[in-house]
Protein 1
Amino acid sequence: MAFGRSSRTDTRRTSSSYCSTTTLVVLVALCLVGAWMMTSSAMAPAEVPSPATKSDMSDKVSRTSSNPYKDGSDDASEDSISDDNSSGENNMPNKSDSESDKTSEKLEEKTEVENPTKGSDDTNNDLDNSSNTQNDGDANGNKGGETIEEAGDAKEGNDTGDEAGGQEQKSKPEQDEKSDGDKTEDEKTEGVIEEKVDQSSDEDKDGNHSRDKGNNEVFPSGAQTELFNETSRQNGAWSTQAVESKNEKEVQASSSSKGQTIEYSWKLCNVKAGADYIPCLDNEAAIKKLRSTKHYEHRERHCPDNAPTCLVPLPDGFKRLIKWPKSREKIWYNNVPHTKLAAVKGHQNWVKVSGEYLTFPGGGTQFKHGALHYIDFIQESLPNIAWGKRSRVILDVGCGVASFGGYLFDRDVLAISFAPKDEHEAQVQFALERGIPAISAVMGTKRLPFPSKVFDVVHCARCRVPWHIEGGMLLLELNRLLRPGGYFVWSATPVYQDLPEDAEIWKAMSALTKSMCWEMVTRKNDTLNQVGLAVYRKPSDNKCYEKRAKDNPPLCQESDNPDAAWNVPLQACMHKLPVDPTSRGTVWPEQWPQRLEKTPYWLSGSQTGVYGKPAPEDFQADYEHWKQIVGKSYVNGMGINWSTVRNVMDMRSVYGGFAAALRDMKVWVMNIVSIDSPDTLPIIYERGLFGMYHDWCESFSTYPRTYDLLHADHLFSKLKKRCRLLPVIAEVDRVLRPEGKLIVRDDADVISEIENMAKSLHWEITLAYSKDNEGLLCVQKTMWRPQDTETGMSSLS
């Protein structure tokens, strides 16, 4: 009985429990249906994050006429590009040791970031240059750590570029909204352009140590200032499996060496060129394979497949350089111990050996009595050339020891001179040792590394170039480089001698220049030097081209890009001149020095600049930025003795703002626009400055020990995507003079890597600072050279 009562009671409880469960299930189902309906109605197709990725900027250089400096994302609308976009370098996977602290959760974006604070001039402290010391630890303050050998490509980056589709997005929406809402436009701009350092302590919150501190140092506030946020397309909310796997491998690899110091083993180069080694010009293995040298192919660039990592030895008895302007007249013989040119050209006053010096009494075959007289003779022959006003940037072909360009500084003119590394031993090396701009190059089978329509004047004084042969191909290359309305100054024996060979050349040149629509504006003789010159003017429009009876030389195809100049073969054709009044080349630049600060007329507000602003604003913001940096930090705050600085190179120039900010210094700046960067080199020339294209994965076309200061702004972090940094630093060591300076602004992990390499080279670390993943490094090269030499003669030379 008792069992029976208990059974009925359990049955009732079971039935009641079943009803309650059924009710609960129904309620849950109704809630789920309601939530789904609300979610469906709230979503719209436009709100779904796009998985599209942007193409890798390093794959090509954009040189379109509508936007000559825009990156490869041509289809990105201006409205979709914010001033606060993450830069290309910030989107790429980080390859440093600091990655070991990251998790593998790639789908969750970190949006809560610390809003960078704006610095104040009144709160910064003066730099104490006397307290600069070299820290034994790395940039993160690590003192100890196991030492490992540097091996191959493991720590130096990849030989090929990363696919942009695998870039990791690091946007900061909450920070952007806050900063935009709390500041006026002027305040935002000021906060972006003016970089400050908070130096209340020698060690910041991240444990990074500053080797130097003070109120003169200008430094980015926050992970990356707006100015450095180069325009890029976002990747959407999701990463890809390829990138996640690749990043994890890199994190694991970096974790294995966390806290360790990489030891670099340096050796001297074992090459025939010895102390004058230029890897891309002394590659004998490649030169021996050439089928012909008829067009000076053996003087062109032939870079080794693997860039060298050895160090170039110093000449015996190398001495500290003579300062400018005395260096224009004499240099130390031991620094450039070559006498062949003095023996061959001494009677023409090129160069002479005088005790422990090499002296330059005249400077050239055409101006035995001094370059200044010759320069003034040109001005008297053609007053419209207006040195230092209308004519500011010129190209000197076959420059010899570059005395012409050296004395043009007295007329406020910049001349970039070039000559081949040939039997005229070390002529370009003499020029650079004297403090005169020059590169090793030849007019052979390829275009020179300059954009079109940029030189105000092209000059040739006995430059030994056969302009009239093969359809005038070489003269047509000068036509590409010369501004519409610019002048070609030709001083050679055919102009003023009547020998049969000279007369024949003059006749051929006269026919060629006429067919090119060049007008000969003057032809005069200099009685003092007993030489003569002819000056031709390039047309400013296409009227003459259209009236020619014969299409010879022919006009280039419309598809031919005259600005494409990196390893592009020469063509015997002429490019049509621009006709749109808003196009570059239709209007002569402002007179110097107004053109330095003037925004080029062909930069339109509808174009997006490198940093994401409308192009004219971008240009001005860049200039103000570098005036702040140079004035407050580089000139007054880093302990650099600028009286010892003459030859300067900006290894990654954008608008030439760094060079423009140094205008009042007694220096000249070679502006390098990397071949994988936006093509802004025409803008630099429009300002009355000069530069050239280059790929820093290869050696530069200059002699060793030719620059006093190298400046690299966010260069090395970009290079790591394409090539190893070790050969690049070896190239920096080759180009930089003993006691020369290297200034690097880059990501903190890259700064740490460069600092370690500099220490291994026995360079002095004069300043190293990092904050918010941004770093600043200033190092000075020493006289140190390794004792060991590479085993076996290198096949490169």
Protein 2
Amino acid sequence: NLRRWRARPLALLALLFPLRERGCWGLNPSSGDLEKSPRSDPDPWEGLHRNKRSWVWNQFFVLEEYTGNEPLYVGKLHSDVDKGDGKVKYVLSGEGATSIFTIDENTGDIHATKRLDREAQAYYTLQAQAVDRLTNIPVEPRSEFVVKVQDINDNEPKFLDGPYLAGVPEMSPLGTMVVQVAATDADDPTYGNSARVVYSIIHGQPYFSVEPKTGVIRTALPNMDRETRDQYVLVIQAKDMVGQMGGLSGTTSVTVTLTDVNDNPPRFTHKNYQYTVPESLPLQSVVARIKAADADIGSNAEMDFRIMDGDGPGMFNITTDEETQDGIIILLKPLDFETKSSFSLRIEATNRNIDSNFLSLGPFSDTTSVKVTVEDVNEPPVFSSPLSKMVVSEDARVGTSIGRVSAHDPDNSNNGIRYSIDRNTDLERFFNVDAMSGVISTAKSLDREANSVHNLTIFAMESRKFAPGTRSHNLSQSISLITVSDINDNAPVFAIDYETLLCENALPGQVIQTISAVDKDEPLSGHRFYFALAAPAAGNLNFTLRDNKDNTASVLTKRGGFRRREQPVYRLPVLIVDSGSPALSSTNTLSVRVCDCDSDGVALSCGAVAYTATGLSTGALLAILGCIMTLLVMVLLIVTMRRRRKEPLILEEERDIRENIVRYDDEGGGEEDTEAFDMVTLRNLNVIRDPNVRRDVTPDTPTFFHYPSTSRPSYKSLPDNVVFREFIWERLKDADVDPSAPPYDSLQTYAFEGSGSVAESLSSLESLSTDSDQNYDYLSNWGPRFKKLADLYGNSDGTSVFS
């Protein structure tokens, strides 16, 4: 049995040759022989012969990437049991056996049949065994050995992380580290120099350098300026074999970007700016935008602006546009060309983020001058007051002057002003304004009780002339608040409609009602009303009135013993006088109803009492009532019978006949029926219908006749644009006066052909009219079949049946 395998250097292989004669396995790498050592374990197949054996192992080495045409010889296996008589057979198993490695079963020679790649697999573990050729019984225990693939320089260095992107601040000192690159070589680092790599820079000098062993890239020039060049592309090479001749190499690119630092101050593109703005520019509007250039980017280019001095303090302000870094000048106060026509400003721009490392490069600020010129525009008129309050009495006559509004032209031209009222604020046109003077006057009588305050909008416009087709849009407006003062023009009346109840058991001097009054007027000193009974009732014996001196009055009884049967209602005229100047009064009637009340004075029933008829017994009253009922029943029966006897053909007026179908089983007379309906009415333009003839029945007499020529002109004599209109109007009037027309809107259809054709009407119906000049006498000669037509249209005697 195989106890162990021990590796021996190649130098010891020569010592193994004498062991072959002693019957052991051994290996000679030069000859490929594997021989048995006498220090092996006892052979289990040799019964009583227990010779102690040991095994010596040496690795097989195979060169990778062998390009020969023949299989590559690896080594030889040999057993001392093999006497050379062919009874022993060698068997190989393990990694790559039969697919990569083969063994000659007779001689034990091992060959590699494929190219090996150390980078794919560095060694192979195989097992060898000697067996009896006939019985396949092992004559030696299984032995394991290793075939190691020997490396050659067949892989170039590779940058697994490339290409690289790196950045370094501009103006960096010499030797500043930028980035470190690294290349890997797949060859064996423990064998030779195949995997030992050195770095060099191929492209990118003299700006950058690379350390050969570490791959660290550093700046090779100081103070590189981003504004001059902001990006560099380097090519770095890695070469194995320590850079010696014949080594393999690989390259990668490194893009180095110079990052910005604040090393440039802002600079105005112009030292003097001039801008022109209209004097009507609204507040907070942009007056101008100025720009200061800064070669830096990002936060290093941010800047602040300020107004250092100028002749318009508080007129302007300047801010920074955060997106464009422009200076924005904003108007804070209104401009007035007539007051000041130009402004001069001095503005400074300063970097917001200053790097102390570059202060030596100079001040990071700049200044410029800005001149703002105000352009004169035609400004709208200016009212002396935006709100005018006026008072007018409601009894003012039409044309009374109330007050005056005033406006002036702020421009140097000082044009005249025209005034007008916005009629949307004076829809009923109570007021007028003088266009030239601005005096407001009344145009209608005023009523304070209807509208006590009028809010007018007055327009002011320059009165100078404008080009034809144009008008001034420079309008200004003012509010005129007109208050209508009160006069005493309304008499006082009862505050409410009183319902006064008087108990029959009321005592003399009892208060039955307390009344008050209201007045639409509003005197400054407040209302004061006086109450008294009107003259007709001043001396009555039933009631009296007491003025309470607080704008109320009490109605009292003068007597008792009121009876409903005697008089159920009393009407008491009350005179109310106000305290105005002149005083106004009104007489109001207070209705007092006499009621039957309980002991607490609560009314139970009021009004007149029905008297019971005397002299008739209850039986007589019932008999009279029975007769009346009998008469009513008879009348109802008669009416019902008459309705059943004659059912009307037309439905009741309150029903809509359009919702019903009336069927008439009446057949027409066919072609011989010439009087069932007159079709000429719908087609002949020159025939006027008799308005007195019913149209819902068949006429008994001819329905057409001639009117005198002076009554109406013929349609044929009318112009074409009038004939249709006259025709429609005539039919409309006929339908309006027709008693048989339905009481609702209906559709009238007229087959009107007109009279504009050169050939005139082709309808034979027109021949029925009396104006027809066609001679149909020849019809009587056509035989009995045309007798009807000859009678209708023939005119042998020179007269018409409708004449």
Protein 3
Amino acid sequence: ASFARGEPRFVSETKLITFHSSAGRLGAAREVFDGMGHRDLLAWSAMIGAYATRGIFHEVLALAVSMIGEGVLPDRFLITRILQACAYAEDQRLGSVLHSMAIRRGFMGRVKDVPVGNSVLVMYVKCGELGRARAVFDKMRRRDLGTWNSMIFGCCRSCQWEEARRLLDEMRREGTEPGVVTWNTLISSYARSGDLDVAVDLLGQMEECGVEPDVVTWTSLVSGFVHSDRGDEALQCFIRMRVAGVEPNGMTIACAISACASLKLLRQGSQLHCHAIKIGTVNNVLSGNSLVDMYAKCGEIVAAYRIFNEIPEKDIFSWNSMVAGYAQAGYCGKAYELFCKMESYGIQRNVITWNTMISGYIRNGDDERAFELFQTMESYGVKKDTASWNILIAGSVHNGYFDRALRIFRQMQSVLIKPDYITILSIIPAFANLVAAWKVREIHACIFHHNLEMDGKIANALINAYSKSGDLAGACAVFDRHSSRNTISWNCIIVAHLLHGSPTKVVDYFFKMKQQGVLPDHTTLTAVIRAYGMEGMVSEGREIFLNMDKDYNVTPDLDHYAAMVDLLGRSGRLQEAYAIIDEMPLAPNLTLWESLLTSARMHGNVRLALLAATEMSMIEPNDPRIQVVVSSLQDLAGQSFDVPKVTVHSKERMLGGVESCSTEIRNMVYLFSTGDKVASEHEAAELKLMMIEMGPSMLSAGNGTLEVEEEKEELAGIHCEKLAIIVGIFNSPHFRSIRIIKTARMCNHCHTFAKLVSEKYGRQILIKDPKYLHKFENGNCSCEDYW
């Protein structure tokens, strides 16, 4: 009919191309196009448009090159489409050519050319050329909302957050109000980067501007909170979305279920499961994977496996979630069975799969199997990553194999695997003790080498490790260099000084902390009350305790009550200390009664000491050391006090456990047990001579206190810390401190012995028992004989 009307053949063929492509017959359209003898701009536009509509961008670009090669130049509408394809394909080379062509043909200078300018801008942004994008943006005479959105997106994509915020303010000054896409671009970018406080602040600004957040806005925030391990806030955000009347989509539901998984909220997760069924996304692989993870983490492994089986097209995340579920539940056999089946279902195991299995075995105590998988994974074409090494290090630390963890840490560095903050945070706690000070310094050197010292969590862990290894100066040096101190950082340095018997410094840091606008928390206030107790400043400590709820929004708990008992007990106000326990709204625990026992013992109050010890024996009836204390106090008290009589076991049964201690000499750790023989005759003779020389001093050392030692040397042999001290004196350099870790509390006799040795030999002796870090120097102890 077209030919009958005299219409040119190529015009009819162009219409046929449009007809076929509109009907979904892209192959037929291309066949017509390829058979055309003459192809004008309309024909090229029809064919390129057909591919562009379906997102087949490589064909768009190929046709554009051919078109230009045949001498047909695009108009402003077609050049916009081709530039969009360049953006999606990230073909900057062709995009730059088209940009030049647009300038030469006059498509960039007029008001009506905003779409062309926007396309050029988006192309450079998507290709990562933010500088060129900015040059285009600055030269545009007119900018619409799309222009601003593209530039803001480019800044967010390049992590130039401040510039993106500045552009937002600038567009509003120029009279362009940001739309929902603008706000979503900013909010989602900040949420993905983990800066969620800013994202929430932007949400508030969005609402103030009268722009209603949509499902994309809320999903970005929920997802951001989930990925930042802030599951409770993710659920709060989800609830706000529902209250606002916004219906969640499959992605929102999946993220909310993941939040329930991290918090192990089975009931809420099950409710979200029902909602996923209601909106038809339950069989979506994303929702399915989240449900498998949620049910597995909540201990419902049967439900997790049922969901896993119902996912129609399982991906690697589905399999990894189910393997992790079985491994976390302790069913490593079932996990390994799935692990082996994966490849038969066409799913290639990745490094996460292997790491999950290794973690499962090591967490369930099967270290041998974990190491076997670790050694063989690379023979299956899976390269170990930092997480693989971290799992072995963390597992070894968790299972008590500290030296093995350090060997793995060293091996990791020898094969040029860079440790990350998880590596460091996993290994540091293993060596936060007196006999591992040199290992803490080794780890610190590694942290410095890999530029990890600026990480706040690592800095806090280092302060803690240096403090517990006896190096207060090292802890202070790390704190002083710490640029982003938070409440935890201040707590670390405050607790460090408390541990080392420096109460004045504790109070100083407390006031500095407040001056810098950092709010004290539960831990801070506990330490400060204890510091005031050590200083004898009862009224100041009491004031903190009475006003903590009002001044710091901290409700007193058992730790604060124990600190108050210690504060009052140290000053001899034993009846007030007992009244605190008697009148407190919480049930007293072992620590509270132990504080009262210590105070009563130090001030010679047999009745209160026996009362406290009796209460302790009721809380821990099987603790042999408490039984010994009760027995000793009953012997001292006789029948003169109205305290319930407690049945205690025989001395032989009570002293069944052998106390031990360890010390580090020339980078070697030695273990001593109570009753051991001294290694050399010279050391044995010297110990005997020292005991004779110090005899009178040691006899008078305990005057005024109740002698209720847990273990007498005539029953068990020479106490282990005395053996460690004498070996340290004669086998370590004079300038080095003697460092000892003890499994049980020091007795008064050994405490006095250590003080006298430190004075006689001019040596610093550090002894950490379960209750205190004793720093002996020049005949004095940092605990001031109160522990």
